[in-house]
Amino acid sequence: MQPVTIVIGRFEDLIGRGLRSLLAEDPNIDLLAGDVELDAFDAMLREHAPKVAIINFGSLRTPVEVNRLHTAHPETRLLVLASRPTPSECNQMLAFGATACLSKKTEARDILNAIHLASRGLHVLPRTSGDYAPEPLGPELLTPREADVLEHLQAGRSNAEIALALSVSVETVRTHRRNIYRKLGVRTRRELASLSHA
User: Fold this and answer.
1) What count of other Cβ atoms lies within 10 Å of the Cβ of residue 98?
2) CATH number of 4-119
3) 10-residue averages of pLDDT along the chain (198 residues)
């Protein structure tokens, strides 16, 4: 059996050391790089083409970054670790292309199990008990297309520029924009911009 190749993003010191130590104990895992800054992630995935990449949710500027990495590197399974992920946050990560979304408090054996499952393309969600409070009416999730439009909106592009970039009509962009505003609870581009810098 070929070892699962892995790249790890930058985490808090103790968690990063713990992850590297944990992976070193598993003979079926080959750690290619650790402590990778998010800005260098794309180049690292392109260079090494790992089977799994572990991303720190706290380092993401926007969940759209997960979608961008997934789209650029569909063969690499993305495992997102978050401090206290809610079910809606995990669902959002999965909708954007992550294969797994887990708490940083997950036990070591479960992290290893998730890595091996993710390497086979199986989706892994956190347990819904203990640290995770149920969310009966959580926020609505953005669709992948809405995420594309959101990325362009955050870059300050006009509706016409977005329509041209995504090969859709201006009215389609307006519809996506309205849905994004409603789902994120904003009314204007200025509010959206302030939300992305919060």
Assistant:
1) 26
2) 3.40.50.2300
3) 91 90 93 92 94 93 86 94 84 87 89 89 64 43 79 89 94 91 81 62
